[in-house]
């Protein structure tokens, strides 16, 4: 599969497009005035504790107070790993009303007026404030550093047991006592020296954050996460990329520095674009983006999907549209749903949709057809680097899934 990264930078925004086999597969946009805050670290002040919800509101200096669940206050390693790998899970409150580990009530953990260091886990949306956690995690190229917990985890995408044992042994031997690390997929096959270099950088970053915190009172921003280009290089870039094209000298130099440090094999694939024609026009991306990002997306058969994003969830509706099929109705419905699966998986990556997603497939009477569509959806999402979780399709044709935004 041919892969290219195309990066466009202007005075007001940066756009990064991943192209696979000549077509856009993923798009990341960061506007200078609307830069995302997920990953940012703040010194916050507890302004209200809510025993009934087992949560607290924390002032971190934004327009709306941030929301902190009780499970995000404690060092529950399952919750930490899922925050790093996928969707955070809520542990059971102290009343024992649901399955899960018993936690002390939040009123015993936090007091109003108390200051604490927190990290943004989910952007503010509409009337909702940001979701935060006290489990600080600092991602690097190969590792994620968790300075407040004693733990070693290995990415679920690394399947070879011998490699898992090798990586775990390296980290156990070199990590600072009492600290935690998650080994990322990119670490597979890397040397001791590669992992040590990443670890030393992350430990040094945490030391800088700790020093800055000492001189700041809440609410205060202590650390900002990387810009969009740097995040893509850190989290998305792999050594099978054939070409990186960028139209900014500043961004070009930044990429060269990153490549020289972490992926020297790619140093010959970086090109500085200097034509008068805008770079996204030259690659045919503007037209493709406009077509792909509309509310209604047509399928090749004549069917279509409707994508609606709200504060609570993203709803995707599948329709037969102009497609009437050549055989019976059930076959027409199955074919449309299977075609929609491929487009939905593509759209989730392209729009970087996260959170709860409800897919309303066209009703299928046969259970075998529902299972076939469910399996096709799982298969289509295998290439997605984001963590996804899909439930079985109901008799009404509804599929519930979650996706961790990249």
What is the CATH C level class of the largest domain, in words? Mainly Beta
Outline, from the CA principal axes? globular
* Tally of distinct domains: 3
- What class, by secondary structure content? alpha+beta
What is the H level of CATH, i.e. the homologous superfamily of the largest domain? Nucleic acid-binding proteins
Task: Give the strand line-up of the largest sheet.
Answer: 16-17-18-19-21-20
Radius of gyration: 23 Å
For the sheet with most strands, the description reads: 6 strands, mixed
Order of helices and strands: EEEEEEHEEEEEHEHEHEHEHHEEEHEHEE
- How many helices? 9
Uncertain runs with pLDDT below 50, 5 residues or more? 75-80, 82-98
Question: How many beta strands in the DSSP annotation?
Answer: 21
Q: Tell me the CATH architecture of the largest domain.
A: Beta Barrel
């Amino acid at each position: 599969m041919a892969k290219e990264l195309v990066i466009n930078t202007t005075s007001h925004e940066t756009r990064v497009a991943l192209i696979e086999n000549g077509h856009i597969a993923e798009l990341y946009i960061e506007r200078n005035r609307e830069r995302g805050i997920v990953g940012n670290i703040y010194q916050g002040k507890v302004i209200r504790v809510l025993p009934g919800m087992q949560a607290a509101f924390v002032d971190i200096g934004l327009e709306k107070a941030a929301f902190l669940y009780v499970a995000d206050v404690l060092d529950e390693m399952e919750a930490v790993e899922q925050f790093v790998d996928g969707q955070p899970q809520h542990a059971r409150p102290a009343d024992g009303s649901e399955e899960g580990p018993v936690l002390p009530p939040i009123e015993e953990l936090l007091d109003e007026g108390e200051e604490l260091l927190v990290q943004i886990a989910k952007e503010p949306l509409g009337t909702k404030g940001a979701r935060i956690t006290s489990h600080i995690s600092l991602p690097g190229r190969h590792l994620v550093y968790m300075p407040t917990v004693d733990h070693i985890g290995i990415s679920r995408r690394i399947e070879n047991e011998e490699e898992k044992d090798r990586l775990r042994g390296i980290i156990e031997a070199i990590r600072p006592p009492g600290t935690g690390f998650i080994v990322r997929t990119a670490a597979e096959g890397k040397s001791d020296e590669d992992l040590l270099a990443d670890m030393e950088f992350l430990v040094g970053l945490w030391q800088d954050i700790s020093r800055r915190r000492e001189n700041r009172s809440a609410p205060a921003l202590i650390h900002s996460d990387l810009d969009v280009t740097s995040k893509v290089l850190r989290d998305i870039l792999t050594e099978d990329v054939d070409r990186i094209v960028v139209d900014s000298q500043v961004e070009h130099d930044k990429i060269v520095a990153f490549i020289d440090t972490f992926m020297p094999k790619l140093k010959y694939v970086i090109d500085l674009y200097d034509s008068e024609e805008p770079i996204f026009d030259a690659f045919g991306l503007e037209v493709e983006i406009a077509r792909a990002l509309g509310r209604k997306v047509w399928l090749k058969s004549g069917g279509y999907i409707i994508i609606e994003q709200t504060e609570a969830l993203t709803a995707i509706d599948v329709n037969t549209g102009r497609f009437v099929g050549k055989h019976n109705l059930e076959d027409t419905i199955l074919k449309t749903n299977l075609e929609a699966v491929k487009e939905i998986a593509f759209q989730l990556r392209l729009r970087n949709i996260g959170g709860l997603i409800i897919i309303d497939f066209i009703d299928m009477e046969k259970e075998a057809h529902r299972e076939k569509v469910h399996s096709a959806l799982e298969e289509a999402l295998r290439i997605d680097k984001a963590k996804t979780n899909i439930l079985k399709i109901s008799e009404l044709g509804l599929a519930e899934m979650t996706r961790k935004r990249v």
